[in-house]
Structure formats: C-alpha cells, structure tokens
Design goal:
The complex is a heterodimer. Chain A is α/β, with parallel strands linked by helices. Chain A has 7 helices and 6 strands; from the N terminus they run E-H-H-E-H-E-H-H-H-E-H-E-E. Chain B has 12 helices and 12 strands. The chains are: A alpha/beta, B alpha/beta.
C-alpha cells in the first residue's frame, strides 16, 4: 500500500498559533490557495481511495484536491485539546500552569483538561492504519488530516513509539509519502512543500525546542 | 513399557514449579505466553455465563463453523474445530501421515509439530533459521528441501521468532509441489495487521491452522480450527475424539468473533505497547531481535538462568532452550503497567 499524507491548508488559528484540536475552524484564503496548489500537483495522479478527517479544514482541503469525493472519517480527527482549544501556548501557560506542566512532562498519559491523551490518539490512528492495511493491500491511498494525527501515523507505520511524534514536523498543505511492505514501511518523502510558494520558514510550536534537556520522552 | 514420544516443552505458568518456589500463580506476571494481555471481550464472559453445562457440546461445532465460514468465505465443510490447535496438529499427523514419510519443519519453531511427527514415526527433516539473519525465513534454502517432503510445517508468523514468510511464496510452493501438503500454522496472524491468511489462496494442498486462544485471550478454554480441502478435513474428522470441543469454548469463540471492535482496539493497543517495550529494553542495554509480532526474542547470557532470576521478581519469560536457543528468552508484550514492571526489574540489576 502507498499512502500519501496531506496536512490540511492554513487556518487563521494556525496563523495565530492557537491550539486547534477538534475545534472546527475553516481554511483561510492562504489555506484555500495551498489546497489548490496541491490539487494541481496531484491532478495527474489517481487514487484507489481518499480519506479525510471530517473537520472542515481537512474536508475542504480534500474537496479542493478531489472534487470527485472522499470518505470523511472521525478516526482522523486531530487530538482533542479540550479547554485549551483556541488559546496560544502563552495563554495556556498563564491560565493552566499545572496541567500544562503535567502534559509536557508526560504527553502520552496526561491530557489537557477535558481533552484527549496522546495514547488515545495513537490508539485510534493505529486502528485506522490496521484497517487501511487490510483493505488496500496493493493500492494507492490519499489521506488528508492533521499534524498530530499524521505525525502519529508516521511513527506507528515506522514502528517507532508514538511518543516520538514531536520529532517529525509537517507544515500546512505539505505532502508526505509512506510505502508499506510485508517487511516494514518506508518513508519516501516527508513534509514536501515544493508545490507551495516559497516563504520564510516559520518556527512551529514544539516542546522539544523549548525543553532544557534534549532527552526524548519515550514512555 | 517405554514410550517413543515425550511431551514438548511450552511457555506459560508451570503450576508445580511455582508451588515449589512458594509463588502463587495469580501473583505472576506472565510474559511467556503470546496471548492478547487485555483479556477476553466482555461479550465472551456473557456468552460463557449463558452456556448450559448439563448438556453435551455440539460434536460438530456447527454454529461456530458457520460463523467462521462467513468470516473466511469458505464452506463449513472445509473447517474443523479443535481443542486448541495443538489437538489439530496431532490429528493432522495421525490422519495424514504414515511411518517413514519425510516431513519438513522450519525451525526454530513450536515443539508440537515434531512431537506429532514422532507419534506416527515420521522422518523429521529440518530447515534451520539462524541468528545472523535475525532468524528470517530463507525461501531459497527451504525450497531445496521441498521435493522430498510429504508434508511441511510452517508457523507463519513464526513462534518464537516473529518472522514472516510472504504469502506469495507459500502460493508458489503449493503450485510447484502439488504432492506436498503445506501445513501453515497461523496462530499469531491476528497480531500482524494487514497480513493475509493462507486460507485466501484456496489451494488443495494447503492446510491452514488458526488458533483462537491467542488473539481472543481464551487460552484457558482451548480453541482452534483448521481450514483445508474437504477431503483433508474429513480425514481429520475420522480420527477426532468425540466431543473434542467443550461447550464453553464453542460459545466463547462465537461471541469473540462477533466482537470485532474489542479485538481491533486491543490489538492496536498491543502494537503500540510493543514498540514502547522494545525501545525501553534498548534504553537499558538489551538488544531485542526485530519481529513482526507482539512477542520477540531477547538475546541473554543464559536463558534458563535469566528466567529463574526474573521469576524471583514474580515475572515469567520463556526460556528458549527447548527451541534450541539456550542464549535467548522470548518475551510477549503485556499492558503498559506490566511492561513497566518488567523494565524496572530488568534495570534493577546486572543481568
């Protein structure tokens, strides 16, 4: 199975670096243009199936890429950030210092208030991945989803612990490609944005770039 | 009277040994069995409670065979249910082999194949996977031994190595060696998502064995089945003991098949835990051998000694001496908390 992974186009919350999670935020103009660029890039390609998260920033991206349709799937929704959704990192730090510290200390086990643990996310992504492998053995599949979901999916496909997902960065409207073989998966490309206009690379929020120690949390 | 057959060695709790050590079985964390550690589905428990014990079980396991027939898309006549696959391995040998026939076994592997071949005075031929290649199957080597073999036992994915033999190779062999019966034991297939069963090949000279005790976590009940050409299944039925599958196992199997969601979720969880366990072991200096399954081999100085020392911590692993691997133990992934206990015990001293 060949899996093309697309992160949705930009939203205003992406631009303002707000935690989005399962808040249903639409694409902004830039996001729509990015999706259009993806559509042009993939125009000549055919897929045996197209799946998308049912949140509108992904679904709209999928719709622009494949007018012929796609299957929305709640399994591909972004991790639920609960009460933190809509806030920036600094706002969360001011309002929720303790839960944030706990979360950063063990993101796998600790959830934001009313949110989802990374463990839950990994579980639904692994279930989805297992189903895809069973259904689409020799096929080419397109997936449109979210940063957290796709970074987790890449870890699971490569048999890395999902706690390592901060070590992969996916930009909005980026393209990555995994090929699955009986002996294992191959990451053929990662975070390819060559279809997008060149812009100054923006540093996305990532706890690894903030933590004083470079020890990776692998629990 | 002397016997030409001896019991094979297995993992799991040795109740007599624990009694000698003064450890209660319920206090042991058992990493030596390759089963789904999350236990059976609640629906299995419900089915067990509703099973009448005063009645004889269905000798033909009809309801379960129908459910399997739907799931596998083969007629019920091509399925036989057994008291665990261990029983079906023995029935296969007794029904289909004669003394002196050559039977190829891809080793290291499950001990019951050899035992059942000995039972009928078959002539065991071996192909041996080696540690230098991570115990991978070598189809080119195995193929050279196929022409002489009446029957071949292949455990796929293999126990204890967790290696897999691609299905297209099994298919090719079945076509090129029509007089050889390929017994493909898929006891651990469910633990490798996306891996296809040899049942889908629909070849007359392939007998596929499937366990239901590992993936559905009902090892205590014993339940497995075989799928093959109707004539082969009939030969197995002819030598099968009456009422071989008890009523609880039949009800449990049926209920387990109907709760796919539970199965999917627990197996996905297990895959994630396995990756965490493997990384955890590497971080404390161990070097687990890569596998496709929930279990894997771990090279150690002395397997028997390693097992014994861990048992003092209430933790059981499988010493692989009986597989011909005295410097390895086999570890099966358990729940997150239990794996942490294993890692803590292993980090606590110099092994």
């Amino acid at each position: 199975m060949n899996l093309l992974l697309i992160r949705h186009g930009q939203t205003n919350w992406n631009l303002e670096q707000r935690f989005q999670g399962q808040s249903d935020i639409p694409l902004n103009e830039t996001g729509r243009k990015q999706a259009q660029a993806l559509a042009e890039r993939l125009a000549a390609e055919s897929f045996d199936a197209v799946y998308s998260s049912d949140l509108q920033r992904a679904a709209e991206t999928a719709h622009i890429i494949r007018k012929s349709g796609f299957q929305p799937d709640a399994c591909l929704r972004e991790v639920n950030f609960g009460d933190w959704e809509g806030l920036t990192y600094d706002e969360i730090k001011a309002k929720y210092p303790e839960p944030l510290a706990a979360w950063e200390n063990d993101i796998f086990k600790n959830a934001p208030p009313n949110g989802e643990t990374l463990e839950r996310l990994a579980l639904r992504v692994q279930s989805m991945l297992n189903e895809l492998c069973e259904k689409h053995e020799d096929q080419k599949i397109l997936i449109v989803a979210h940063g957290g979901v796709l970074q987790t999916l890449i870890c699971l496909a490569l048999k890395l612990p999902p706690t390592m997902y901060w070590q992969f960065h996916l930009s909005t409207a980026s393209l990555s490609e995994l090929a699955f073989y009986p002996a294992g998966a191959i990451l053929n490309s990662l975070n390819d944005t060559s279809h997008l206009p060149k812009s100054a690379p923006k540093k996305a929020w990532n706890p690894l770039s903030r933590k004083p120690s470079n020890k990776i949390d692998r629990r | 009277m002397s016997s030409r057959v001896e019991p094979a060695t297995h993992g799991a709790i040795d109740f007599a040994e624990l009694e000698r050590l003064g450890i209660r079985p319920e206090d042991v964390l058992d990493f030596s069995v390759n089963s789904n550690p999350f236990g059976p589905s609640p629906k299995v428990w419900d089915a067990i409670r509703q099973t009448p014990l005063e009645r004889y079980p269905d000798r033909e396991s009809i309801a379960l065979r129908r459910a399997l027939s739907q799931r596998l898309e083969v007629p019920p006549e091509e399925i036989i249910v057994g008291n665990g696959t261990a029983e079906l391995i023995q029935l296969t040998a007794v029904a289909l082999l004669r003394g002196g026939e050559n039977i190829l076994v891809a080793e290291p592997t499950f001990g019951e194949y050899e035992r059942s071949i000995r039972l009928v005075d078959g002539n065991i031929c071996r192909w041996q996977a080696v540690p230098e290649t991570g115990f991978a199957f070598r189809p080119d080597e195995i193929q050279k031994q196929l022409a002489n073999a009446r029957m071949v036992f292949i455990c796929n994915p293999n126990n204890p190595t967790g290696q897999i033999l691609p299905l297209n190779i099994v298919d090719e062999w079945a076509q090129n060696f029509p007089d050889t019966l390929f017994v493909v034991d898929e006891a651990y297939l469910a633990f490798v998502p996306g891996m296809k069963s040899a049942v889908t090949l629909r070849r007359k000279n392939i007998l596929t064995l499937r366990s239901m005790t590992k993936d559905y976590a009902i090892a205590g009940l014993r339940l497995g089945y075989a799928v093959a050409d109707e004539a082969i299944i009939q030969a197995l039925i002819n030598v099968r003991p009456a009422w071989n599958v008890n009523a609880l196992a039949q009800s449990a199997g049926l209920a387990a098949l109907q709760d796919e969601a539970y199965q999917r979720e627990t197996l996905a969880r297990l895959q994630i835990e396995k990756q965490k366990l493997v990384i955890g072991l590497k971080e404390i200096g161990f070097n687990p051998i890569p596998s496709h399954t929930n279990y894997f081999l771990l090279p150690v100085a002395n397997g028997a000694d390693f097992r014994q020392k861990l048992l003092a911590h209430g933790i059981l692993v499988r010493d692989c001496a009986s597989f011909g691997l005295p410097a390895h133990v086999r570890i099966a992934t358990r729940t997150a908390e239990e794996n942490t206990k294993l890692l803590t015990a292993l980090a606590s001293r110099n092994w």
